[in-house]
């Protein structure tokens, strides 16, 4: 799978509602930095169903 933003190989892929999108590590990091700088993450843990092994 190719990165959504460039023509490098996608190293990370996400799928939702049958649509699969991949990104390379560089673009994944850029997107994570952008999200971290926004207020979008505030309170999101409550909305996510995460199974964390301890």
TrEMBL record:
Pfam family for this entry, one:
DUF6757
Q: What InterPro entries would the database entry show?
A: DUF6757
Its protein name is DUF6757 family protein
Instruction: Supply the source organism for this entry.
Output: Halosimplex aquaticum
